[in-house]
């Protein structure tokens, strides 16, 4: 059936928050979308919709394992099938240009080839289930500061060779769609960036729809003529009927409208089709993936693995409160059955293990451990009772109620059944808190509107300002809370009540918590005491989920000051300390000099606990290599500051010298180089020679244990750059010749057009970017 222009226009905008529009009479269905990439995110963004949580992209990038990443994509695809999702907004193939990027944990790497190959593998795994993949965010959404308006200023060579390359590789893998970024690129919003959309559609031959990020459109003609095919979410703000009017007025081409509709219709027909649930042991895959991304950077005296039977002091806030993921609107509700490092290590080391947090494990917003204010008959024994009011008058009976066992709540207009969110209204949260110890307790509350917190008959927080709707999203993402203290007696329960009044907006949030009277000095003293008496220490430090957030970049690369104090104090009394860093990005690791061993765990997903225990006791090896460079000082990074100038410009002045390339160009030695890492065995590198399409490398496992090695190939001109890699597992004494493929796109340069690099090219065969084992000469005939 030929679509009318009216039907074509209908297809250019979403049908709802998470669905596309349908034209049933033409056989064009609606498809359901979900956010990613660490799993299938609930549109409600709350704790009730539990899903499997995979390792973050940085942890997957550290694995350097194409097959493993494909299986993780397959696992997420299985989750999508189970939940009726047709397309997932993932993977994120932006680049970790600066270690301060707030969303860097979602990026595979600072290297475009590593990000592109692994992103393409994830796409292939997901789409093997019949679920479409929509890589994001096209392009240069590599930071969060003022991302809705920031203008990334990037030269053409850098744009094509670096920032577009991962998307190009995902397009070549057959990705179903692409999500356009919020920011501007060289003066034009990405949803209107005709130059980029022309490259994608015409040069790459990409046939899927180009979709706006949610509320990321600004103009009808700019979007339609700039190549946008689908505005999300619905109902339309600039596309849809507005696009039809533009065509009828002669301001846009009928062919452009037809192209947009065809791309959306084709995708809807393709991804609404039959699904194929995978056959996977999901728990095994998640544990394997978490361990495969762990990077061992230091292991003095072969302290690791730690055999059972020793007296182990487990210290650190992230043992009991691990950081599984960052704070984005794609946050996954993790299963309450997920095993934390604390439980897993207790199982591994038994009664020989003693735990102390050392510092407050919830430094920003603590939990609110309460019992419901009243029984709603829902079987919930913990959490706040939430009452929803149709107006700001809370003296009348609520329109609905529920129990929510979470201390940070988000409501999107059109997604939730409870309450009124598009007009002034109110919510009341209440519960019974029973102190475990006597002393001063600090209560916290924050919201996107007016908030008032009472404990018993005491008003502790009263912030009456109702925030303007234009600032709601910013307030929600910042998550700032007010606080006040109250002396409480152990065992005497008190009622906590939080009243939240707000104006209409597309999203609202409320958060609260309470902190007990335990002092920082007492926590530190207990940690030092158990460390002094132990044979070895496992010290797990790192971040909380609000350390890496959407729409906010970090101020620096350092761990919190109290954790640095803990590291120095513990290592001073017991140098046999293994530090595990639960961090999602490049960070200052200069404190590693105090410890015997350093293991990077990243944000490893819900397999964190079992994987860490198995790595530390030697059941598994830490299989990762650094996907980002760790510098000796912040000033050594080629790109650091992410604050745009007065006109909103953020110059990409590092050009093609992103990450390790910049260190090499300036002859600046990093603390730990890109690609570095070690396992529990030793490899002899015996030789290398060029071969058709890549390089053959001979390796031998010269150690006593099975283990993996990552062979990396680098070109040296026009700048140092990864051109291929392969991961291999060998048993003790095993010798094998490994084929390492080369990505031919890395053997070209943009100079007003694509030009091949010199035919005879030296390729470094490397353990990491600063350790070349061999150099081979690549002849053009060898690439045939």
Could you explain the architecture of this structure?
There is one protein chain. This protein folds into four domains: 177-270, no CATH class; 282-363 and 519-651, Rossmann fold (3-Layer(aba) Sandwich), CATH 3.40.50; 371-515, Sandwich (Jelly Rolls), CATH 2.60.120; 681-783, Sandwich (Immunoglobulin-like). The protein is 23% helix and 24% strand. The protein is built from 18 helices and 35 strands. The strands form nine sheets. Strands 12, 13, 14, 16, 18, 19 and 21 form a seven-stranded antiparallel beta sheet that branches. It has a six-stranded mixed beta sheet with strand order 9-25-24-23-10-11, with helices on both faces. The radius of gyration is 27 Å and the shape is globular.
């Amino acid at each position: 059936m030929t679509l009318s222009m009216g039907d074509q226009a209908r297809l250019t905008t979403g049908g709802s928050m998470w669905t596309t529009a349908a034209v049933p009479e033409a056989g064009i269905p609606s498809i359901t979308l979900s956010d990613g990439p660490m799993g299938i995110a609930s549109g409600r963004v709350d704790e009730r919709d539990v899903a499997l949580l995979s390792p973050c992209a940085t942890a997957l990038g550290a694995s350097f394992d194409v097959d493993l990443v494909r299986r993780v994509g397959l696992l997420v695809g299985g989750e999508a099938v189970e939940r009726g999702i047709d397309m997932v907004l993932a993977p994120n193939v932006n680049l970790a240009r600066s270690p301060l990027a707030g969303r860097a944990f979602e990026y595979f790497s600072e290297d475009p080839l590593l990000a592109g190959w692994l992103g393409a593998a994830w796409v292939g795994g997901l789409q093997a289930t019949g679920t479409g993949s929509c890589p994001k965010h096209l392009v240069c959404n590599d930071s969060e500061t003022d991302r809705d308006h920031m203008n990334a200023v990037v030269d053409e060579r850098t744009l094509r060779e670096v920032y577009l390359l991962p998307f190009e590789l995902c397009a070549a893998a057959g990705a179903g769609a692409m999500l356009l970024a919020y920011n501007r690129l060289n003066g034009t919003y990405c949803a209107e960036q005709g130059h980029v959309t022309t490259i994608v559609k015409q040069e790459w031959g990409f046939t899927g729809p180009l979709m706006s990020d949610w509320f990321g459109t600004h103009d009808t003609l700019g979007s339609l003529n700039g190549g946008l095919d689908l505005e999300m979410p619905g109902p339309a703000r600039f596309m849809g009927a507005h696009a039809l009017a533009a065509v009828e007025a002669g301001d846009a081409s009928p062919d452009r409208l037809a192209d947009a509709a065809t791309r959306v219709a084709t995708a809807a027909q393709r991804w609404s089709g039959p699904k194929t649930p995978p056959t996977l042991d999901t728990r095994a895959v998640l544990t394997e993936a978490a361990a495969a991304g762990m990077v061992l950077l230091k292991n003095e005296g072969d302290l690791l693995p730690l055999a059972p039977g020793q007296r182990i002091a487990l210290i650190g806030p992230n043992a009991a409160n691990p950081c599984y993921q960052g704070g984005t609107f794609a946050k996954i509700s993790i299963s309450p059955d997920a095993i934390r490092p604390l439980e897993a290590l207790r199982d591994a080391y038994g009664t020989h293990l003693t735990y102390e947090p050392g510092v407050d494990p919830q430094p920003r917003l603590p939990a609110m451990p309460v019992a419901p204010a009243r029984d709603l008959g829902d079987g919930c024994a913990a959490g706040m009772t939430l009452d929803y009011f149709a107006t700001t008058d809370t003296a009348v009976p609520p329109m609905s109620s529920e129990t929510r066992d979470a201390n940070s709540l988000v409501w999107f207009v059109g997604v939730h059944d409870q309450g009124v969110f598009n007009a002034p209204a109110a919510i009341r949260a209440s519960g019974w808190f029973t102190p475990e110890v006597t002393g001063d307790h600090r209560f916290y509350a924050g919201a996107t509107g007016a908030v008032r917190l009472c404990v018993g008959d005491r008003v502790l927080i009263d912030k009456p300002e109702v925030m303007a709707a234009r600032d709601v999203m910013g307030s929600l993402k910042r998550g700032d809370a007010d606080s006040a203290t109250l002396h409480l007696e152990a065992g005497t329960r008190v009622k906590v009540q939080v009243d939240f009044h707000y104006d209409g907006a597309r999203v609202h949030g409320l958060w609260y918590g309470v902190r007990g009277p335990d002092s920082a000095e007492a926590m530190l003293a207990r940690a030092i005491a158990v460390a002094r008496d132990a044979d070895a220490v496992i010290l797990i430090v790192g971040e909380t989920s609000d350390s890496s957030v959407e729409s906010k970049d970090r101020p620096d690369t350092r761990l919190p000051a109290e954790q640095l104090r803990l590291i120095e104090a513990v290592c001073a009394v017991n140098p046999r300390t293994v530090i595990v860093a639960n961090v999602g990005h490049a960070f200052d690791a200069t404190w590693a000099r105090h410890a015997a061993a350093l293991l990077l765990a990243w944000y490893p997903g819900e397999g964190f606990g079992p994987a860490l225990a198995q790595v530390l006791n030697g059941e598994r090896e830490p299989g990762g290599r650094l996907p980002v460079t760790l510098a000796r000082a912040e000033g050594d990074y080629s790109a650091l500051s992410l604050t745009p100038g007065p006109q909103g410009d953020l110059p990409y002045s590092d050009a093609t010298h992103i990450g390790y390339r910049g260190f090499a160009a300036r002859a600046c030695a990093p603390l730990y180089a890109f690609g570095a890492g070690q396992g529990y065995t030793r490899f002899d590198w015996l030789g290398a020679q060029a071969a058709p399409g890549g390089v053959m490398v001979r390796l031998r496992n010269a150690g006593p244990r099975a283990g993996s090695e990552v062979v990396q190939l680098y070109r040296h001109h026009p700048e140092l750059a990864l051109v291929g890699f392969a991961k291999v597992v060998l048993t003790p004494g095993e010798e094998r010749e490994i084929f390492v493929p080369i990505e031919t796109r890395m053997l070209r340069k943009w100079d007003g057009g694509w030009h091949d690099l010199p035919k005879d090219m030296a390729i470094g065969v490397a353990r990491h970017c600063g350790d070349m084992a061999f150099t081979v000469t690549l002849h053009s005939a060898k690439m045939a």
